[in-house]
Amino acid sequence: MTDRRTPFQKWKLTMLAIFVAWLAIILIAPFTLPSGSVKDLSGAVGRLDNAGQEARMNPFADAVYTMGDIECHQIAVRSYYLNGNQLPICSRDVGLSIGLLSGMVIGLLYVRRIDPFLLAVGILPMVMDGGLQAVSSYQSNNDLRILTGMIAGVAVALLLCEFTARYLEVGAERKEKKPVVRSGQKT
Prior knowledge:
There is one protein chain. This protein is mainly α. The protein has one domain. The chain has seven helices and two strands; from the N terminus they run αααββαααα. α1 (7-28) runs antiparallel to α4 (91-109). The longest helix is centred in the C-terminal third of the chain and has 35 residues, at 142-176. It is globular and about 75 Å long. The two termini are 37 Å apart. The model has no long low-confidence stretch (mean pLDDT 89).
């Protein structure tokens, strides 16, 4: 039996699997630890702020929480809790993860081309919400953070689909073109 999926369909299925796995490990990790053992991971993006706490975790949770520690600020009041434990990433990043997964499902089911500018607009609510927090006394809430993260995640996943489709089309067009033979050149 031959696989009739196009390279683009295979790529979308691979990305969907990656996004499902990422969201699953984020949501499972708190349940692999004793209830209430992870309370406050507040730190900064791009730094390993919680190595001491993570070193006391089982290897799976240690790996997941370390990835979250490097990738996210993990501010406690901006995070959700499962099993009495703070999630490895903040509410906005959880929203991004849900949005990436949802956007890839949409990308699998919806085959029409979308204007990248319209998709880029989907990132604006998150930029505005997060940007206002960074430059003013405005404080968002976790429900708005997860919602703006989800919208942005869907937009990013669909942008990835659009740009990948364009890349694959260009590659296919190059393969179809016959080489130009110049005079005196052997074919």
